[in-house]
Design goal:
Distance between the termini: 50 Å
Largest sheet: 5 strands, antiparallel
Number of strands: 7
Number of helices: 3
Strand order of the largest sheet: 3-4-5-7-6
Helix content: 25-40%
Length: 174
């Protein structure tokens, strides 16, 4: 049974009718559009569950987003298996970032207020202020390309070459 609430706050009547779907289909998120190749991306990782690509406004050099291929709005909405997989991928990327970009520590952040598609920020950290979103700024395309090329090479060196897409601009599985 469902409750139907009249506009008057004091009127609540039981109903046996199931609710109807009235929501309009939503547009794909910007991340889905990147994954689908509708918007360019710089990919460092791809597997059947997720991809990782550069953010165009990095907080530090080498900052990437690990994003499930499936549109999942929030961290708390994701199946535990997906969360675990994203964590493992983030750890592998973070290890390469620390080495390649000579970082003090890796940063792993889940915020999700800007795009309704779960994503994990993975970035090299040098000081505590690096995790502040106000430290993000647009990076020139050449700088992003160079950083992602270095990170892709490091992931391959670490034994994850099968998950490094053959082309920087493609999330295709090898």
């Amino acid at each position: 049974r469902w409750l139907v609430v009249d506009r008057a706050p004091s009127t609540v009547e039981p109903s046996t009718e199931a609710p109807t779907e009235t929501a309009e289909p939503t547009e794909p998120t910007v991340f889905t559009r990147i994954i689908n190749g509708e918007i360019p991306g710089r990919f460092v990782w791809a597997d059947d569950v997720c991809v990782a690509f550069a953010t165009i406004e990095p907080q530090t050099r080498g900052h990437v987003l690990v994003v499930p291929r499936e549109e999942i709005a929030s961290y708390v909405d994701a199946p535990e298996e997906t969360v675990a997989h994203l964590a493992v991928v983030a750890q592998r990327i973070a290890a390469a970032q620390v080495r390649v970009f000579d970082a003090v520590r890796p940063g792993i952040i889940v915020v999700g207020l800007d795009v309704p598609h779960l994503h994990v920020h993975v970035l090299p950290l040098y000081e505590a202020s690096d995790v502040n979103p106000s430290s993000a700024s647009a990076a020139p395309a050449d700088d992003l390309d160079a950083a992602m090329t270095e990170l892709r090479a490091a992931l391959s060196e670490d034994g994850w070459g099968a998950n490094v897409p053959s082309e920087l601009g493609s999330p295709a599985l090898a």
